[in-house]
Amino acid sequence: MKTTIDIPDKVLQEAIELTGASTKREAIVTAVSDCNNRKKMARLARHLGTCAELMTPAELEQLRAAD
For 21-63, how does the pLDDT look when each residue is reduced to its tens digit (9 = 90+)? Predict the structure, then answer.
C-alpha cells in the first residue's frame, strides 16, 4: 500500500538506528510489525492462567519426575 505520512526526521532517524534498517521503508515496516506483535502478545498475555484444563507447573514437574 502506498501512502504519504509526515514523520518527524528525528523520530525516523531513531527508528532507522534502532532497527538497523538500511532504508526508511524498512525502518517503518519493521517498527509497525514490532508494534503489531507487541499488541498481539499483550492481548494473549491477558489470557495467561485462565484455562482451567491445563496442568499446573507442579503437576508438570511431578509428571516429569515420574519418567
Answer: 999 999 999 999 999 999 999 999 998 878 888 888 899 999 9
Question: What are the extents of the domains in the chain?
Answer: 9-66
What distance in Å separates the CA atoms of residue 3 and residue 10, rounded to the nearest whole number?
20
CA dist., res. 13 & res. 9, Å (int): 6
Contact between 15 and 21 under an 8 Å Cβ cutoff? The reply is: yes
| Euclidean distance between CA atoms 40 and 48, whole angstroms | 13
Q: Over the Cα atoms of the chain, what is R_g?
A: 21
Report how far residue 13's alpha carbon sits from residue 20's, in angstroms, rounded to the nearest whole number.
Answer: 10
